Batch of 3 targets.
Target 1
Amino acid sequence: MSPMKTIMNERLPISESSPLKARFFDYAHFSYPLHFHSEYEIIYIQQGTGTRFLGNNIAQFDAGDILLIGSNLPHFMKSDDAYHSGNTNLRVKGTIIQFEKDFMYYAINHYPHFIKIKKLLQDSVRGIYFSSAQSPKLQDLLAKLPLENGLNQLLLFLELLKEMSETDNRQIISTSDFINETIYDTARIDKIISYLNKNYTRHISLEEIASFAAMNAAAFCRYFKSKTGKSFKNYILDMRIGYACKLLIMEDISISDISSQCGFESISHFNKTFKKSLGYVPSQYRKTMLKS
């Protein structure tokens, strides 16, 4: 199949000797195309409105919003049409912070003091949203960070990560299926997820997966939801939707064929499930993403 969309792999000037970059931005409008990079990124929208595309999620952004974007997550910010009209009174302003993928790797992965920050960074592979209404301390830290340098900047940045990791006011943006990278804490659930990753595009009965896990169906359902936060049925549907999003962006194949390849029983079921998950039917999603 021929590719429909090239997602740019952005190379950032981040290194072990310079692991953190913090700067203010002031644009007439966002202009960078759909892209990804190995580094983490925090975007604080101090002023401006538009649409954000993170992984397989499309949503509005507003002044005050904060985004934590994990390593290699495709993303794109599109300012509202009014910002492209030449009106010099409209600007998008804020702060961008970028830091290397292995930032303080040993400490974060081995010291118990960093356990919440470790979880935050793990979750960021799907993108995390902090709402404008309830994040005044985060906004204050983000407004100060570019003004500092050296050790003072690093200490302020650690305070920012601490605040992000401790707030309950955050929302994971993209679904795990789009990323196809899930981190769990036991060998059993890892084995189950690996099996699902290889088989989710075909019908998998509850009896089959429960037998694979050496559990009865009721016990499996309780166990699976306790580990993933989702029912088995919804987890499979989310995996299929994530795969469908990739095919809609990257492959020049019909929506009917995508529905079949992703394991949906009919195109009507595919359309209904896709819209319920993302707010768009597949054709609208493809059209919107390819305009980026």
Note: The chain is about 40% helix and 20% strand.
Target 2
Amino acid sequence: MGEEKRELPPVPDRLPVTVVDAHTHLDACGAVTAADVTAMVDRAERAGVARVVTVADDLASARWAVEAASWDRRVFAAVAIHPTRAKGFGEAEKSEVERLAADGRVVAVGETGLDYYWDYSPHDAQQEAFRWHIDLAKRLDKPLMIHDRDAHDDVLRILAEEDAPNAVIFHCFSGDAEMARKCVDAGYVLSFAGTVTFKNAKGLHEAARLCPPGQYLVETDAPFLTPHPFRGRPNEPFGAAYTVRHLAALRGEAVHEVAESVRTTAERIYRLPSVTTG
């Protein structure tokens, strides 16, 4: 069992419509070189996950994500400083994040937001960094990718106070139906990770059912949050195909309908070239 826990799940059958993994961390999955990236995205594409957004949470990973997005046309990047690293986020760091975020292969500013679960950065430092990233997203006219852990009220309050960008994505949405309704009413997009497949995530199931087409995405947050029934094993972008199928079952919709919605919403939010092949 110990060996099995360290192994990747099997690559699932190909989805009837290709989708985008809206949030992954290819470097944390173990990718270092261009060949590593291609191998991971090839596995994903076999499952119908034809494009991925690899996300940074510090400057080193931001530099790597932008470079990786130049190695393979199926890979795009998002860059920001993670809220748990907001302490000491000074002018030099801001300048480099802004430079990297302006790159043409960067499709979002993120992940940024608030994390009150971990005690790595003071809340005031997180909030200051969050406000700065909101402003950056507006100045660059790119979507804002939110990290929200145990901080729902403050995240929504700051977004309202700062006049949120046109496109806001709640990465790995973790709220219940009430939180989902507030986000949907505000025009935000909810990105569902493998957590939506967990049997005990009843509030998240309700949130997934009420979210209208055009306001939800699917992500892996790989190498974390591997979907059921492989919870606890390493994750990769191909795992999004498991989540798409589970989301379709939750919503009582056909898999191809959910996959089509995920793909078209990702293309619109991230401004990706349209891909109509299955």
Note: The domain at 15-270 is CATH 3.20.20.140 (TIM Barrel).
Target 3
Amino acid sequence: MNYELKIDVSPVYELLDSFMLYVTRKWISNLDIGPDWVRDIDGRIPPHKRAALLQAAEWPFEDYDILYAWAYTHGPAAKVQLFLDDMESATVEEWFELAAPYLPDFTLEECRRIKDGYGPLLRLWHEQYFRHVESKMLSLLIEDASEKKLLQSKMDPGALIEYASGGVVVEDIPELETIVLLPTVHHRPINTYCFYKKLMLVQYPVDVPVENEDEPPTLLLRMTKALSDPVRLRLLRYVADEPKSLWEMQSDLGQSGDILMHHLMMLRVAGLLRIHLRDEDNERFSIRPDGASELQMFLESYIRL
């Protein structure tokens, strides 16, 4: 693998994550924060400001690829306030030049729409929500990223990506030059990734300390829930020998893509599946061998065997 692996920390990514999740409600039922997080924020933001934010629910989801690219161009440890000020003060042409190397089909018209549309809403989101949680989030992100940076000298880049993400395997992508690992809190426990021309951003969930040691660990609960369904057990057996694509699963197992994706998501967040990436439209799934040993470890630790 010829790519360079970087580990980046910036609250700007977390600002974008939280805004995207609140506005789109994407994956919300599979996340640790859950639907209660949305309801809590709904109750704290004045109705007219909530309505302003939710305008973005109708905008293309692909807009976030541009926003994340802009966050990356601001460099590691970029400040939220600086990012928001730049969105307001810099010209459309300047923002276009930042994104163009990563998005060859990006147009000046799209740039104007995204800059003018999201800039005021991200500032409103920062004022109403993100500034109240930023310092707590940032400390978790810095701590986790520091741990991963220590491992960089001890682990192969591919192994570190799989370890941090709990199963993301980046296969041979000839044009890929840089992969950036980004810790995230709001997206726990899923991974997200953005493909660009020669760059890939991989967000992985941070480890959050257990507050009550008498309660079962969250990962143990995810594992036992994932394994409680016989359909998911059969899926694990099916992908045990070699990676399978979603199309192969639909063909061999006779189930719809939506149903399969639900089960695959449950197994992925439990750390029981690997996802093999060749490009954004080519994903395959295989069993994650470490998942079974982690299940035993967490179970024995919790019941004190």
Note: The first helix runs from residue 11 to 24.
